[in-house]
Amino acid sequence: MKIQNISCLLTILTTSRLACAYNVFYCGNTAITDEHVRTAYNNALNSAIPGYPRSYKNDNIAYNTTLKIYPLFLNGETSINSSYQCYLAWVGQEIAWGVVIISDMGTQLCERVDFEPFLQLSTIVFG
Predict the structure, then answer these.
(1) Cα–Cα distance between 22 and 3 in angstroms, integer?
(2) Residue 4 resides in a domain
(3) Residue 47 lies inside a defined structural domain of this protein
(4) Within a domain: 98
(5) What total number of domains does the chain contain?
(6) Backbone angles phi, psi at 26, to 5 degrees
(7) How far apart are CA 5 and CA 78, in angstroms?
(8) Which residue range forms the structural domain that includes residue 81?
(9) Where residue 101 falls among pLDDT bands split at 50, 70, 90?
(10) Which of 31, 40, 50, 120 has the fewest CB atoms below 10 angstroms from its CB?
C-alpha cells in the first residue's frame, strides 16, 4: 500500500510540474506560455512549416536588423492566419528574442512578463 501511495505521489508531482506552463509574453489579452515558445522553436529547427523560419525586417521592432520568425500556434491552430499571427522572433544565435504580432494593422512587439534569467530562450527551450 505504501508503494502505491509513493508511486501516486510521484506521478502527481511529476505530472503537475509538466503540466505547469508559465506565461512569458502577452500579446494583447493573449498569453504566450513557455510551452508555446518551446514548441515553436523546436518546430523551427525541424522546419515543420515550409518556408519557416524566415527572415523578417521591420525597423519599428528591430532597427536595421533582420529577425528570424516562426509562427506560434495557439488554441489549437494548425495554419498561419495571414491577417493576425503571433510569431516567435529572434536575432542571431537566439541572444535577443521575443514575440511579435504581424497583422493587417502592422507589426507589434508583445509585452514580456518579466526579465528573469529563466526566461532566456535557451533556458525555456533546453530546460
Answers:
(1) 32
(2) no
(3) yes
(4) yes
(5) 1
(6) -125, 125
(7) 40
(8) 23-126
(9) very high
(10) 50
